[in-house]
Amino acid sequence: MTSVLDLAPVVPVVVLDDAADAVPLARALVAGGLPAIEVTLRTPAALDAIRAIADGVPEAVVGAGTVVSAAGVADAVAAGARFLVSPGWTGGLLDAMTASGVPFLPGVATASEVVALLERGIREMKFFPAEAAGGTAYLKSLAGPLPAARFCPTGGISLASAPEYLALPNVGCVGGTWMLPPDAVAARDWRRVEALAREAAALR
Question: How does the record describe its quaternary structure (predicted)?
Fold first, then answer.
């Protein structure tokens, strides 16, 4: 894998409280056409969920999100994460992600953060929180002076707003949760998840 941004138009952002749901959920997403799956490190079940998907759903490209420390980088990669996503970055976190050997998307919300990453040779980033930080208008304004930067906007994006983001030249994919309604996950309605994933995959 050379780029997380080119795997699918949408990267599902998954929060799991029960690792037992990881494999059927991942299979539903992959069947719907969304192979890149970001499991956030927000719950105690996250690492077990990543491990389960890595072992049980080889056609999925499972990654870890909400990576905020060097220890989190090490734990995620050890569990089988094939990419890393952070909501923001520091020098130490960036060093750890760079040394991990897997692709990563450090989070940015300002032009200065983008410039600092470009200075270090990093061109692919997460734009977060996308809607709160200026949305498509902000990304459009970055495209002119900073054409080398490519983004995965995440945060507040919906099925309705995703196409506007995906139409931008500096957006490779978007992250979202709308294909994972809490009631569907709680009911283990994987057919519904698959149908919503297919709808998201068809955006490009």
Answer: Homotrimer.
**Catalytic residue flag (residue 199):** no
Exactly one of 59, 113, 124, 126 is catalytic; which is it? 126
Here the tokens at position 134 are 């200026």
- Closest among 57, 75, 58 to 66, alpha carbons compared: 75
Residue 7: burial class (beta carbons within 10 Å; 0-12, 13-18, 19+) = buried
Tens digit of pLDDT per residue, the chain (204 long)? 779 999 999 999 999 999 999 999 999 999 999 999 999 999 999 999 999 999 999 999 999 999 999 999 999 999 999 999 999 999 999 999 999 999 999 999 999 999 999 999 999 999 999 999 999 999 999 999 999 999 999 999 999 999 999 999 999 999 999 999 999 999 999 999 999 999 999 998
Angle in degrees, CA 10, 16, 18, rounded to 5? 145
